[in-house]
Amino acid sequence: MTAPRTASGGRPNRTVLLAVTCLGQFMVLLDNTIVGAALPDMQQRLGTGLTGLQWIVDAYVLLVAMLLLSGGVFADRFGRKRVYLTGVAVFTAASLLCSLAPSLGWLIAGRVLQGVGAAALSPASLALLTAAHPVPQDRIKAIGLWAGLSGIGLAAGPVAGGVLTDAFGWPAIFLVNLPIGAVLLLVGLRHLDETRNPGAPAIDVPGTVLSVLGVGVLTYGLIEGGARGWTSPVILGSFAVAAVLLAAFFAVEARRSAPMLPLGLFRQRLFTVSHTAMGVVGFALMGSSFFFSQFFVYVQGSSILRAGLQTLPLSLAMVVVSPYAGRLAARYGFRVVVTTGLALAGLGLLALGTVHADTGYGNVWWRLAVAGTGFALTLSPLTGAAIQSVGPQEGGLASGISSTARQIGAVLGVAVLGAVVRARRSGGASFETGLDDAFLAAGALTLATAVVTGLWLARSGPAGSRAGESGPVESGPADSRPAESPQAAQHLGGPGPDAVTGSPPRRTGSLPR
Length: 513
Description:
This protein is about 75% helix and about 0% strand. The protein is mainly α. The N and C termini lie far apart (about 50 Å).
């Protein structure tokens, strides 16, 4: 792997590199939370309902989930600067397409392209950063700054989205990406140096295609099932096709010499449990966040800007607590911190499932903060547990799979919890009742996962290829060793690109259909 050229001892180029990578990741994180602010405005102007809103969110998350691993490999093989700037260009152009979208279909198409851009931009930005800092301690500091500075986008999204949507309408939330993207392209082309890893593995094209199609068709069935009927031929057919595609994916991965998902890693209990828990975190966090601000607007009647401020305790708790999660895991172990985090998140969601239209905000905000604190305690330690469960050469792959598991859980969370709300409303219940049931379902699943991690989130034997170890061993801290890849490094300092979603929608006088 070649290191980037530096001027004057490396300080100027590294400063520019840090600024460019942080701003790129900031744009991705901002997009996660700013979109939710405009969902009801989109509903009104585009004439869509709950199903359409789910697609606006999931079209983006699905592509990020399925292409994240390939994006990192592309960056290593074809040049990190090239892939990063390509991702920025695609994301920026897609944002313009979204802002000009005349219909729901065009907006969803733009969101798909945004997902492709983000799947290239995010891992390539961290690959550039890690390649420029070969000294482990320097690398960890740089990654901490990258995560902390870019993570500000999570907290800024709800308020920025509320202000822009209230003043100019939903297209404005996408137009904000245009000047950021233009600056990144101009500065990046001039100041970034190219690096690559000639020994990076080949792209697993069959695995990537089958995974995108399989999870995509499954998501279609889950989102459209509520509208079309769960026993309709189209929905039953989509589930059958999804099963065939996913079975083909696992069959292909089992036979490839360099698969994107080495199935043998799941023989390690710590690896399996940590990734299962990460999927549940994505499911509960993304699925419930999709409805948080809708509760404030549709149930409690808040304005769009006020709802944005009311949603902040969740994202602020995650931004503040996430940097300390790895340190706590170093002191108390993965199992204690993750189980505590899942328990807090589950209790917070269950508490949110008991609020009503007349519940005062003083009795609501702390529930969001408890849930956010719990989720923040899980992200970094779960990734650290996945990395610790395998050999040193597989740490980056394990962390990339962890991010993918979280994203897939997020896709399914929006789809399944949306189906819960739709099912309750089709049975004659109110939107408020449907939201309560969705929060309760997410909380119950999260608490059940806390029991699983409390019992089994520990290594009971050798990890990966390290054959000299034996006996019960509690996993080490997430930040106990240098990150070996962009994906591994991502979780040392703060939340990943999809840590929080959903923000304050605008009150339009009608509920999502």
